[in-house]
Design goal:
The protein is mostly helical. The protein contains 3 helices and 3 strands. A hairpin with a 2-residue loop joins β2 and β3. α1 (10-32) runs antiparallel to α2 (34-55). The chain crosses the membrane at residues 35-55, 67-89.
Length: 90
């Protein structure tokens, strides 16, 4: 059984913005090579921060699993840094 816990727009914003980062990564990787994937993830991370702070400016009303939307940017940012590490290793 899958249990999803959210408040406000958390159920919509997190997958939407993380999906935008992943879609940007796939698109930019096709245009610029491996560094494009990192750029797409960074763009998605910035979107998570900006939109998350905008919707939660009066308190943390929009969360997913108790984590405010803007803090999900740390997770996506980790994947952006991890992609840089993979590029440097290869």
């Amino acid at each position: 059984m899958l249990l999803i816990v959210w408040t406000g727009l958390g159920i919509v914003l997190v997958p939407l913005l993380m999906g935008a980062g992943i879609a940007g990564a796939v698109t930019l990787e096709g245009l610029f090579g491996p560094i494009g994937a990192t750029a797409g993830l960074v763009v998605g991370t910035v979107l998570l921060i900006v939109v998350g702070r905008a919707v939660n400016r009066h308190g943390n009303e929009h969360t997913l699993y108790g984590i405010p939307v803007q803090h999900w940017a740390w997770i996506q940012g980790f994947f952006a840094v991890f992609s840089v590490v993979l590029i440097l290793i290869a």
